TrEMBL record, chain B:
The lineage of its organism: Bacteria, Bacillati, Bacillota, Clostridia, Lachnospirales. Pfam families: ABC_tran. One of its GO terms (molecular function) is ATP hydrolysis activity. InterPro entries: AAA+_ATPase, ABC_transporter-like_ATP-bd, ABC_transporter-like_CS, MacB-like_ATP-bd, P-loop_NTPase. Residues 6-235 form the ABC transporter domain. Belongs to the ABC transporter superfamily. This is Macrolide ABC transporter ATP-binding protein. GO terms for cellular component: membrane protein complex. It comes from the Bacteria. Keywords: ATP-binding, Nucleotide-binding, Transport.
């Protein structure tokens, strides 16, 4: 009596009770499928959000300072710091945001994001130009009245990228000449206030426009993503030396946001997986119930087998294997159903959701484990039956 | 006289039933030799089933010794008892006790399966056994596709398959009409003539008369043991 025969016997018995076997499996199928669907969809969502964040620049560190009359940091000091730490940073720019109305002839734009930046900004954002040139160091040095327009601005005010080059527009009354247009960023939408409704000027010109003496925002790009924390610490130390108070400045890394987002998402994934896991547990209890019924129903069979010389372990093996085969069969069907459902639901939600090997592996081993564990109790009950009592049962 | 196969010596089987002591076997001593055909007869509750369970290694006595083919079965554990049942005893039950989901071949193969015989050899032996009872053509059939007599013959084939030292028949004709009963009894006689040792348990004296020797059990004790002619004389 070997394992192979026990398997044959188990399959025969499952096949002989198709309806009952299917209902037993159903719990496992739903449990396994829901684990896979939930975990995979959350993963897909996570990948999507990570990508979105990455496009916003995960290598960037935003610095915000509150300049007081007694303690302040100047742009030159910031640049000195940047020059001293070339190993840590690849780019740096002051950032001066202006809320302004833009006019060209009779056309007016009010939602445009107007920002004063350095010549390194384009490279830092990993963007390209459609036409013309970006801001240059000389523009900044001499506070040139030039600007680089977003795709939307070029089209909305001048009716085309080429038409916009060399044109003049007014920012709160001051005239600026357009020297370049940035490539279209958002392929789907073209709207006011969007990623293409932007205008970049030399930060020096912007400072003058806002009538502030100092710049309060800076963006650093780290040279190496792995040294974000180190870079952040360097900036903090530097600013602490000047301000002596960490309430006066804020240093925040985009990658840290991403990290906390990731941990949030993986917690959610685990939580949902756990909820789905409960349904697997319920399925296990279902398997146990059916196996117990099966033992009771087949008491006479067990008696006959024992009278003919079956050992305890033969009977045990028979029932454990039957339970394990039932639940792993359910597990396999569950994986197939779950994978298909994940792909279908994922495509409806516009996510790139694929069943993760982890979810498949875990839910499958859990279902086999359920079969073994919940099959064990009824099996040992069957094995312990006294052959005489078992033979007498009707 | 040939060598003894079954040696029961001063067997007691005592149950506690609701605080009362029930002596299902009350000092039974019995020897059965190889080649005998013995009927154990007794009324319901006489203790003949207990005796059968002990002889069949399904149960162990409370006290006393039981040797089957020289082996001390009376003191065996579950594991060894199962081995004895498997190798030395062929059971024939009143209700045939064939497994309904298995075909005849698979049913007959069962004891061979548990004794660990390989697939080819097993099939060969099982077919041979079915041929002896005249059912080899029907090996693919499920038990419920056969008549009662055929089912009982299949169960006899199963009992014979392992080539046991002892064939133990518990009311083998109990569920059959008189014509098929006749057939089954004749078949058992034939098996005995071929040298098989047969012990048959029955409540029916007329059936018991088919054996060569009759043992009558009453209240857990043997109150008659003699050949069939002596038995007919006291009826």
């Amino acid at each position: 009596m070997n394992i192979l025969q026990s398997f044959k016997m188990a399959i025969k018995s499952i096949w002989g009770n198709k309806m009952r076997s299917f209902l037993t499996m159903l719990g496992i199928i739903i449990g396994v499928a829901s684990v896979i669907i939930l975990v995979s969809l959350v993963n897909g969502q996570m990948t999507y959000m990570t990508e979105q964040f990455a496009s916003m620049g995960t290598n960037q560190i935003n610095v915000n300072v509150s300049n007081l009359s007694s303690r302040s940091v100047t742009v030159d000091e910031m640049y000195d710091f940047y020059e001293d730490n070339q190993g840590l940073f690849s780019q740096m720019t002051p950032k001066v945001s202006i809320s302004a109305t833009i006019k060209s002839g009779t056309e007016t734009l009010t939602d445009t994001t107007v920002t004063g930046v350095s010549e390194q900004y384009l490279e830092m954002k990993d963007q390209t130009l459609d036409t013309g040139r970006f801001l240059q160091y000389s523009d900044i040095l001499s506070r040139q009245k030039v600007c680089v327009a977003g795709y939307y601005v070029a089209w909305d005010l001048f009716g085309g990228v080429d038409k916009a080059i060399g044109q003049t527009l007014k920012i709160d009354g001051t005239s600026y000449q357009i020297v370049g247009v940035i490539s279209r960023q958002d392929e789907d939408n073209m709207e006011a206030g969007g990623t293409d409704d932007v205008l970049y000027l030399p930060y020096t010109s912007a400072v003058r426009q806002t009538k502030n003496a100092n710049v309060s925002n800076y963006v650093f790009a780290t040279a190496d993503m792995d040294h974000t924390t180190e870079s952040k610490t360097a900036i903090t130390m530097f600013l602490m030396g000047i301000f002596k108070d960490d309430d006066l400045f804020r240093v925040s890394a985009m990658s840290e946001l991403l990290d906390s987002l990731n941990s949030m998402m993986s917690m959610m994934s685990m939580m949902l997986g756990g909820i789905a896991g409960i349904s697997l547990l319920v399925a296990g209890v279902g398997v146990m119930n059916i196996m117990l019924v099966s033992v009771t129903e087949r008491t006479r069979e067990i008696g006959i087998r024992k009278a003919l010389g079956a050992q305890k372990r033969n009977i045990m093996q028979q029932f454990v294997i039957e339970a394990a085969v039932t639940s792993s069969l359910g597990g396999v069907i569950g994986i197939v159903v779950g994978s298909i459902a994940t792909t279908v639901i994922g495509s409806f939600m516009g996510l790139d959701a694929t069943p993760t090997p982890g979810a498949v592996l875990i839910s499958f081993s859990v279902s086999v484990g359920i079969g073994l564990i919940f099959g064990y109790m009824p099996a040992s009950r069957a094995a312990k039956l006294n052959p005489i009592d078992a033979l007498r049962s009707e | 006289m040939s060598e003894p196969l079954i040696e029961l010596n001063d067997i007691y089987k005592i149950y506690q039933l609701g605080g009362e002591e029930v002596r299902a076997s009350d000092g039974v001593t019995l020897t059965i030799c190889r080649g005998e055909f013995v009927a154990i007869v007794g009324k319901s509750g006489s203790g003949k089933s207990t005796l059968m369970n002990i002889i069949g290694a399904l149960d162990v006595p409370s006290s006393g010794t039981y040797f089957l083919g020289g082996e001390d079965v009376g003191n065996m554990g579950d594991y060894q008892l199962a081995k004895v049942r498997n190798k030395m005893i062929g059971f024939i039950f009143q209700q045939y006790n064939l497994l309904p989901k298995l075909n005849l071949l698979e049913n007959v193969e069962l004891p061979l399966l548990y004794s660990g015989i390989g697939a080819d050899k097993r099939k060969e032996k099982a077919i041979e056994s079915l041929r002896r009872v005249g059912l080899e053509e029907k090996w693919r059939n499920l038990p419920n596709q056969l008549s009662g007599g055929q089912q009982q013959r299949a169960s006899i084939a199963r009992a014979l398959a392992g080539n046991p030292s002892l064939i133990l028949a518990d009311e083998p004709t109990g569920a059959l009409d008189s014509k098929t009963s006749r057939e089954v009894l004749n078949f058992l006689k034939q098996l005995n003539e071929e040298g098989n040792t047969i012990v048959m348990i029955t409540h029916d004296s007329a059936i018991a008369m088919e054996a060569k020797r009759v043992v009558r059990v009453h209240d857990g004790k043997i109150n008659f043991d003699g050949d069939v002619n002596e038995y007919s004389a006291i009826l």
